[in-house]
């Protein structure tokens, strides 16, 4: 049983560019959440998708957007990248929007130069 | 702001010793979860304890929850070098919904 998978594992982008990160949830899970983890900090909630809609959103600007597909996989898009967007981006899946037991992927390390 | 705050933040122990770390939170919760993270990689789910549970075991892990004190502890018994990692607690319900709020993490180093 595959767990949560994320791609790519590492990414280097230039300030001002746009980036798309991808996530496939654990089998049987239909809810996907995205988190940003800065170096030395705990993960910060970005948003959550369920039934192809954004259900909750953390304190992140509109430059951060997402999408969920019918197969429950999800994308995180960040526009107009800033140096401060450099972080580990983590995807978590859960078996239902009201079930908070979350399983995380290995993350995508984004570096903005 | 962070919901959970682990204490202590850094711990160095000898292999075979027990490691204990604590987490406090501010509001009511449904569940509290502990995660392990190795070298800035993904989070590994260790254990979930529900608000109506007081203690839970999983292998060498023992988690307690005291909702009256709004705190939890994670005990790793007979530590191994492979237990070297950062440990995070995460709570839900802080924002009145089911997203997770994380503390800053405990760095545990197990010396062989």
Q: What percentage of the residues of chain B does DSSP assign to strands (E)?
A: over 45%
User: Count the strands of chain B?
Assistant: 11
Average pLDDT figure of chain B: 88
Low-confidence stretches of chain A: none
The number of helical elements of chain A comes to 0
Radius of gyration of chain A: 13 Å
Characterization of the model:
The complex is a heterodimer of chains A (113) and B (112). With 113 residues, chain A is an all-beta fold. Helices cover 0% and strands 50% of the residues of chain A. Chain A has strands at residues 5-7, 10-13, 19-24, 31-37, 44-50, 53-57, 64-68, 74-78, 87-94, 103-104, 108-112. In chain A, the strands form two sheets. In chain A, strands 2, 4, 5, 6, 9, 10 and 11 form a seven-stranded mixed beta sheet that branches. In chain A, strands 1-3-8-7 form a four-stranded antiparallel beta sheet, with no helix packed on it. The radius of gyration of chain A is 13 Å and the shape is globular. In chain A, 39% of the residues are buried. Chain B is mainly β and 112 residues long. Chain B is built from no helices and eleven strands. In chain B, the strands form two sheets. In chain B, strands 2, 4, 5, 9, 10 and 11 form a six-stranded mixed beta sheet that branches. In chain B, a hairpin with a 4-residue loop joins strand 7 and strand 8 (71-76). The mean pLDDT of chain B is 88. The interface between A and B is medium-sized, with 29 and 25 residues.
